[in-house]
């Protein structure tokens, strides 16, 4: 595939990812309360169902990645479009706890095989070691998922109710997401011989590095991604509450929190422009340091620098999203990327599932001082990244 022809693929996958994230990960923030009221259930039950979906996605990730390694991204992502639609349609018809949990379980299967990791694996399956720029491009587009998803979900709920909102999202997966994923080029078939796949069986762009990295590399990457996703999800759930606990007004807290999304996109633009000239390990180290730096500024100077914290945290989170796709690629190469990516990212999904609850308990105990905990977790991720060495990569 020629570089000048990459943009249709990036646009298609980026738009499909925006739809996937907006209709699942960002859905409960707007619909949990009306959904709970409509079903006569506590709101915590809705969030428990969402946690179930995240845990299911963690379990399914390696299998989805292996399927993409074997078949390419097109059939897998087309299938997840159907799963997203089925899960959202089932959610719109939920009548109680059991049907609610089953609907979110279907959505969890779709999330495990249809969010960033699957899109990254689809790109690597097509482009091999040259996928870094395309991975960045996808995250630039899908970085607006909350910007699009939250207002759209809120408007649909106001006009059609939460059931109508879920049905509309399901229709969008069929009418928009499915054709977009169907437009992905077919990947070259791999031999189905009984012997293990050898490097010479793969296209030149998809062969593995000659020397494997040290054994601890996968463990360190897995920890880094779990730690940073814990922080990201905790901030997404509790940042306004933390700002209010620090003395900011609710209106100011909402305004400051709104800076995170644009800062994420700005961080990805920085990675796409300046930082792409360097090893992605450097980008990841810089990004991982931004949250602890923002916490230090906030807790030393007070909520008056809350906006600076939001910008630093958001920029770091945006770059780290790209690192989740590029670091496994440069250390291990493209062969078996999908399955390896699913395994490395599985702890991240678990951390993500429990982050709102665990960090909420920290806030109840320590107030805004809970930020020292997130900063400490971030610094351990920085240390792990400095343990890795660029010369061990492909």
UniProtKB/TrEMBL annotation:
Q: Where are the transmembrane segments?
A: 46-64, 76-95, 101-123, 135-156, 218-236, 242-261, 282-301, 307-331, 369-388
Where in or outside the cell it occurs: the entry states: Cell membrane
InterPro entries from the xrefs?
MFS, MFS_dom, MFS_trans_sf, MFS_Transporters
Record carries keyword Chaperone = no
Topology of the protein relative to the lipid bilayer? Multi-pass membrane protein
What Pfam families does this protein map onto? MFS_1 (PF07690)
Asked whether the keyword Transmembrane is assigned, the reply is yes
Using the record's annotation, list all stretches that form the Major facilitator superfamily (MFS) profile domain: 9-393
Q: Which UniProt keywords apply?
A: Cell membrane, Membrane, Transmembrane, Transmembrane helix, Transport
Q: What is this protein called?
A: MFS family arabinose efflux permease
The record lists the lineage as:
Bacteria, Pseudomonadati, Pseudomonadota, Betaproteobacteria, Burkholderiales
């Amino acid at each position: 595939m020629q570089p000048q022809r990459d943009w249709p693929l990036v646009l298609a996958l980026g738009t499909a990812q925006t739809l996937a994230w907006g209709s699942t990960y960002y859905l409960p923030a707007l619909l949990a309360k009306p959904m709970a009221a409509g079903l006569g259930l506590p709101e915590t039950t809705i969030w428990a169902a969402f946690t179930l979906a995240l845990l299911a996605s963690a379990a399914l990730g390696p299998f989805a990645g292996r399927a993409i390694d074997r078949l390419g991204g097109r059939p897998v992502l087309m299938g997840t479009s159907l799963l997203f639609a089925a899960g959202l349609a089932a959610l719109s018809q939920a009548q109680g706890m059991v049907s609610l949990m089953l609907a979110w379980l279907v959505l969890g299967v779709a999330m495990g095989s249809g969010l960033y990791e699957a899109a990254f694996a689809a790109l690597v399956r097509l482009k091999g070691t040259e996928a870094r720029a395309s991975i960045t491009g996808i995250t630039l587009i899908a970085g607006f998922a909350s910007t699009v998803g939250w207002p759209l979900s809120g408007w649909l709920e106001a006009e059609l109710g939460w059931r109508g909102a879920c049905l509309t999202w399901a229709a969008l997966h069929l009418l928009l997401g499915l054709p977009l994923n169907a437009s992905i080029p077919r990947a070259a078939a791999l031999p189905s011989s009984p012997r293990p796949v050898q490097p010479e069986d793969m296209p030149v762009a998809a062969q593995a590095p000659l020397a494997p990295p040290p054994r601890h590399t996968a463990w360190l990457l897995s920890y880094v991604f779990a730690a940073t996703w814990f922080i990201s999800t905790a901030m997404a759930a509790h940042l306004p509450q933390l700002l209010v606990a620090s003395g900011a007004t609710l209106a100011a807290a909402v305004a400051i929190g709104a800076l995170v999304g644009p800062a994420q996109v700005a961080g990805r633009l920085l990675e796409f422009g300046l930082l792409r000239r360097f090893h992605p390990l450097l980008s990841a180290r810089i990004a991982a340091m931004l949250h602890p730096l923002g916490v230090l500024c906030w807790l030393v100077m007070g909520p008056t620098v809350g906006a600076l914290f939001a910008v630093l945290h958001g920029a770091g989170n945006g770059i780290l999203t790209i690192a989740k796709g590029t670091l496994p690629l440069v250390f291990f190469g493209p062969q078996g990327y999908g399955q390896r990516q699913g395994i490395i990212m599985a702890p991240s999904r678990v951390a993500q599932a429990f982050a709102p609850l665990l960090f909420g308990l920290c806030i109840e105990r320590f107030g805004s001082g809970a930020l020292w905990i997130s900063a400490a977790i971030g610094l351990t991720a920085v240390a792990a990244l400095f343990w890795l060495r660029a010369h061990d990569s492909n």
